[in-house]
Structure to design on (708 residues):
């Protein structure tokens, strides 16, 4: 290492990089065109969030979001490549072009609309608390001074901070970390979407969901900002799924319930 | 749509970067202290007279250096989760055992390269084995291995980035956090790599200044 | 927290696939990395100041950067800038290659230094161009002397590939941790990981030490 000479060489390298980046145009194709050209839909899904996107006993990535992505690919007549995303990385990866769509238990918020566009709501969830069976916590009021594990980069983090200001929030890069923290006893509770908590419960006796559902979480499939063609395509697929009752099939498969809220605008 | 660089986000989030920077330093210094302590123990053992000790220490060193650092991190954080060690200290333990193995190798070769005559002189002067070791052999070995230790320190600083995986909010973690908010992926990671470069270059310069030799690169030790 | 070793048996095909991916990745990268490293090494010893500066800048920059950061730049940072998207595995291979190339460039320098200067002089004196001297006299010898160092880098790579799991590549560590996220049996899984890496790296290190003796470069 050569101290100042290093710094000078780096300055040169940085200048070259900046110039190169500025001169290189990024593709301005709309996603459906790019996808058809490539022949594959790059679907950003979760690998650790049952039942939306998770790895099953056969080490396959499956889930409600995963099935929806596959339906979009099928409708477009292309193959699908599933790409692992986590809550903090799902939007950056969409923006950067690593994925074409994001179906990753993502809540549609006005804040996120500044960066990406959303499909119509395909699932409405509610936030809730997961605690060990023996825990004295019964609801939001009991969180004073307790640690709550939550995923980084989610609406859940902010909602919890607003509704339970006395609670100590522990953010994690992904649900795996947050869930493990509660299982290991590093955190007193886990907060997340109701059906996701139910998904975790299926694999783990000794825990329970407590308290009322707080906050309403409408999920949307994410597409890049301004890509009307892609968003309209995804919306059409969602509406067709409802009309053909395939949506109900998938919903029952993953949530063991019938869907109550119809896809907006569907027949 | 051309990509517009926005290097300003690095200034905007300077506090987060500073926090990460300090944690990286903290991890590195604590990790180095642990690695040196453990390395001296294991290295001395594997250069010792008793065969069983040599084999035991040598075997332990081989284990620690063959297992990837990431697996070390997972071990303390997930494997021994019953101990509920906070993330920061899990990372320090992982760095201690992993880098400690390399320190042990360096210490072993350092001790073995101290001329036999020094041992003989020490023992002949009436010192016990242990006293000879501490007052004659160690100081000489230390001088020989100092540049290698500096190389290990540099490597440690870079290795500390893996602590981000077990949720320690050091520099690499902060890069992810900044990117998550600003979507300036390139700027965040390149900015952070420049900060690492600053730390590592500084260590190099200090090594050069103190020992008049460059830090020995760790690749020689796999 | 269980000690259910059957979890390994149940997921054996998946884990073995991961192990194979680890080995495959290390092999691909050592080949690409050697090509890049030798190329960088040649540039670094070039007489053109621009080539030399660029090579030095690259080598110093990469050697001062953590592997995870390099991977993150390649996987997350490059697609919006260059307009081309790499899959996780591709990004990992590219990232590792760019990374290890900078280290192999330094190994090349050591290999180069051990080629007797007299031979280079003789070659030039006999009327061979610099290019010919490089190709016929310098490179064959330098590369031969690099073999133990290259083997060293290969063993390092086997361990480094575990970092690819962080960007979602299902190599050995990635596969094992994915299984753990579902089954939550960290001790058997981590023990298996450790034991496998120990056996593989230890054996290869022994081969490496033997190679070192055989092809010893004078210090």
């Amino acid at each position: 290492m050569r101290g100042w000479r290093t710094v000078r060489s780096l300055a040169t390298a940085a200048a070259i990089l900046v110039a190169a980046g500025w001169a290189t145009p990024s593709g301005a194709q709309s996603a459906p065109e790019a996808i058809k050209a490539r022949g594959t839909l790059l679907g950003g899904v979760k690998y650790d969030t049952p039942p939306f996107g998770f790895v099953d006993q056969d080490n396959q990535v499956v889930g409600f979001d995963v099935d929806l992505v596959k339906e979009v690919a099928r409708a477009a007549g292309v193959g699908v490549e599933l790409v692992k995303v986590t809550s903090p990385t799902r939007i950056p990866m969409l923006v950067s072009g690593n994925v074409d769509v994001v179906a990753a238990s993502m809540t549609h918020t006005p804040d996120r609309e500044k960066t990406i566009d959303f499909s119509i709501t395909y699932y409405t969830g509610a936030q809730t608390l997961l605690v060990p069976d023996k825990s004295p916590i019964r609801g939001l009021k009991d969180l004073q001074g307790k640690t709550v594990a939550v995923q980084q980069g989610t609406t859940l983090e902010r909602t919890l901070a607003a509704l339970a200001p006395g609670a100590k929030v522990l953010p994690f890069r992904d649900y795996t970390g947050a869930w493990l923290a509660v299982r290991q006893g590093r955190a007193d509770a886990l907060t997340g979407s109701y059906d996701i908590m139910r998904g975790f419960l299926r694999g783990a006796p000794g825990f329970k969901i407590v308290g009322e559902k707080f906050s309403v979480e409408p999920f949307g499939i994410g597409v890049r900002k301004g890509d009307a063609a892609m968003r309209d395509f995804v919306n059409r697929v969602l509406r067709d799924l409802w009309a053909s009752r395939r949506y109900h099939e998938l919903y029952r498969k993953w949530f063991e319930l019938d869907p109550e809220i119809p896809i907006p605008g569907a027949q | 749509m051309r990509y517009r660089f926005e290097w300003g986000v690095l200034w905007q989030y300077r506090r987060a970067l500073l926090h990460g920077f300090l944690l990286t330093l903290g991890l590195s210094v604590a990790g180095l202290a642990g690695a040196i302590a453990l390395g001296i123990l294991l290295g001395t053992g594997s250069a010792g007279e008793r065969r069983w000790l040599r084999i035991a220490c040598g075997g332990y060193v081989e284990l620690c250096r063959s297992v990837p650092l990431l697996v070390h991190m997972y071990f303390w954080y997930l494997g021994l989760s019953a101990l509920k060690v906070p993330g920061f200290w899990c990372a320090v333990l992982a760095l201690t055992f992993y880098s400690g193995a390399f320190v042990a190798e360096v210490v072993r070769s350092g001790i073995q390269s101290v001329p036999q005559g020094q041992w003989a002189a020490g023992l002949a002067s009436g010192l016990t084995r242990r006293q000879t070791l501490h007052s004659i052999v160690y100081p000489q070995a230390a001088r020989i291995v100092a540049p290698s230790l500096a190389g290990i320190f540099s490597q440690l600083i870079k290795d500390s980035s893996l602590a981000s995986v077990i949720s320690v909010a050091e520099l690499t973690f902060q890069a992810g956090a900044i990117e998550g908010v600003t979507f300036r992926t390139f700027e965040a990671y390149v900015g952070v790599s420049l900060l690492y470069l600053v730390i590592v270059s500084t260590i190099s310069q200090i090594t050069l200044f103190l020992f008049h030799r460059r830090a020995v690169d760790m690749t020689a030790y796999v | 927290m269980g000690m259910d070793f059957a979890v390994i048996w149940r997921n054996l095909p998946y884990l073995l696939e991961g192990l194979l991916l680890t080995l495959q990745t290390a092999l691909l990268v050592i080949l690409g990395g050697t090509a890049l490293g030798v190329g960088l090494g040649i540039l670094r010893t070039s007489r053109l100041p621009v080539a030399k500066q660029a090579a030095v800048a690259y080598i110093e920059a990469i050697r001062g950067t953590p592997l995870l950061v390099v991977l993150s730049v390649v996987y997350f940072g490059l697609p919006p800038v260059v307009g081309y998207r790499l899959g996780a595995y591709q990004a990992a291979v590219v990232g590792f290659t760019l990374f290890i190339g900078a280290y192999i460039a330094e190994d090349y320098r050591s290999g180069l230094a051990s080629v007797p200067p007299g031979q280079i002089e003789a070659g030039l004196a006999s009327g061979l161009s610099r290019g010919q001297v490089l190709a016929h006299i310098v490179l064959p010898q330098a590369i031969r002397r690099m073999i133990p160092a290259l083997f060293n880098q290969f063993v390092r790579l086997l361990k480094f590939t575990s970092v690819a799991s962080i960007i979602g590549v299902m190599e050995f560590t990635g596969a094992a941790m994915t299984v753990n996220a579902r089954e939550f049996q960290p001790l058997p899984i981590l023990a298996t990981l450790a034991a496998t890496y120990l056996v593989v790296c230890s054996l290869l290190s022994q081969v490496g030490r033997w190679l070192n003796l055989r092809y010893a470069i004078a210090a």
Remarks:
- Chain C touches chain B through 48 residues (CB under 8 Å).
- The two ends of chain C are 51 Å apart (CA to CA).
- Chain C has a mean pLDDT of 89.
